[in-house]
Each structure stands twice: as structure tokens, then as C-alpha cells.
Amino acid sequence: MASTSCQGIRFDFTGRFLPPVYILVFIVGLLANGWGLKSLLQKWKKLGIINVFVFNLGLADILYLLTLPFLVVYYFMERKWIFGDAFCKITRFCFNLNLYGSIGFLTCISVYRYLAIVHPMRVMGRITVTHSVGISVMVWFLVSVQSLPDMFYSKTFGNKPEQCFDTTSDSYVDDYIKYSLGRTFTGFCIPLLITLGCYGHVIVILCRTNTTDKVLKQRCLKLLFIVILLFSVCYIPYHVLKNLNLWSRVLQRQNICCEWSNGVYIAHQISRGLVCLNSALNTLVYLHGNEDIPAQLRRQLQQARKAFMRLTPSQVPLVELSNM
Predict the structure, then answer these.
(1) pLDDT tens, 9-21?
(2) Which CATH class is domain 12-314?
(3) 297-322 as b/e, with b when 16 or more CB fall inside 10 Å?
(4) Rounded to the nearest 5 degrees, what angle is found at the Cα of 208, between the Cα atoms of 54 and 228?
(5) Sign of the torsion angle spanned by Cα atoms 104, 2, 156, 29
């Protein structure tokens, strides 16, 4: 929330924009992630190294998706939080776990792809599923420690049902922007640089080597496209606009009103909608990481088509009889 001392900030935009996005992401994300996790669990004994990271990616998405109905109620009630201060902080904590957990596991997948392509002989047999499980636990721990300080900032105002801030109230925004910049650097910038470095080197190796399997090249390029899509659409706009919006609030507390404050506020709310899309877009990693899932999807579509074709002729005689 920004200060109301400066005029022209359209706070009502959030209530109109975010609820439809949350509802769409909740439905699509829950169905897609539930289906993806079910497919992975059915072949748990054959779970590969990358699929361990994909499985944890799905868990992070489910954890956040379950909080969206409460946020929808919050905005439908014109930003009146009725679920208590503790649950408000838990809701925002789950968002941070999903956001930075997703970035962390995507980075792990990128590093493993890099090692498997650039240094295959060095890692062959040395990286096991046990190692990937241990790395996943470490990612959860680091993301939790990184997100925990956010819970100590004020998220509601007063004892009566009030707003549930996604950052904090104006009274603490000066300190919060420092924490936000630090978390952006450690939780987003460093993983982004690692991911870009890995895929940049991989692309160079694939272009120089003519003997590389074409299927491997295609899979690597597809995963690179998915990662670029997630970072470009979901992560980069959110982190840039969030910190700009916080900076505008700091200026407003100093009675410095900027003409760009309203534009940044609206753009930040749009980026909040885009960043939650990662819970649905992450399912693209399922399709890439598990070759059986696209095949299952094709079989189900074929079965649905056959069922529809069987149903259609059976309706023709009934129509003809009704016209006699």
C-alpha cells in the first residue's frame, strides 16, 4: 500500500485486476500441478535427478495456490482482511516460498543440465537421486531463512479487520526496502546470473559440437525457452517494479510526490498478477522433464475424441425419428 498523501494513485485498480487473475491461476495451476505430481508419484521408483527438482517445484506451487482463495475473498471484500494477522503473514510467507523456491529449483535444473552436457564424464555416476534430494532440502532451508524476516514486518493495521499488506505498512517501508533489495539480489539476481551463465555456455558447446544428439539439442533449447519465458514474464518485471514502488513510497513519506508514482503502482500490481502465473507456467517444466506426460495427454485426447465420435452417430437416429 502506498501513502495517500500524494494524489492520483489508483488503489482501486488492484481490486479489479488481481481477483480474476488469482481465480484463473488457482483453477489452472491446481489442475495442472495436481496432474503433474500424480504422474511423477506413479513412477516414484524411477524418479530421476531432474524430476526430484520438478517434484519440489510442484510442491512449492501447490503451497501457494492453496492461499489464493483467501486473497480472492480479501479483494472481493474491498481489501478487508478477516483471517487474522498470523494467517496474513503465513499467506505472504507462502508466496515468498513459492517465488524463491521456484527460482531456486529452476536454477538447480539449469545447473544439472549444464553439467550433463558440458561435463558429462565428470558427473556420470557421481550425482545421484540422493544428492538431488539433499540439494532440494538445502534450497527449502535457504529460501525459508531468506523469507523469514518478512514475517516480522507489520502486515496488518490495528486490531480491526484491515488490509493485509504484501510488503509492509508505510511506517516500516524505509527499512523494508533495504530488506527487499537484499532479497532481490540474493534470491533473484544471483540465481539469474547462474542460470544465464549455464545456458550461455551450453549453447556455445552445442553450436561448436556437430556430434551432439539432435534430440538433446532440442530438449535443451526447449528448457532454455521455458526458463527465459518464466524469468521474462514472471520474475524480472515483479522484482524491478516492486522495488520501484517501494522507493516511490519512501519518497512519499518524505512528502516528495513523483508523477510516475501512479504508473509504477499500477505496473507493480500487474507484475503481481504476472508473478503468480509462475504457479501455472511451471507445469511446462513437467512437460519437458517427463516424456511420459505428453504421451499421456495425447492418449487422453485421443480417447476423448473417440468417445465423442461414438456418441455423435448414436444421436443421429434420434434426431431423424423426432422429425418423422
Answers:
(1) 677 788 889 999 9
(2) mainly alpha
(3) eeeeeeeeeeeeeeeeeeeeeeeeee
(4) 35
(5) negative
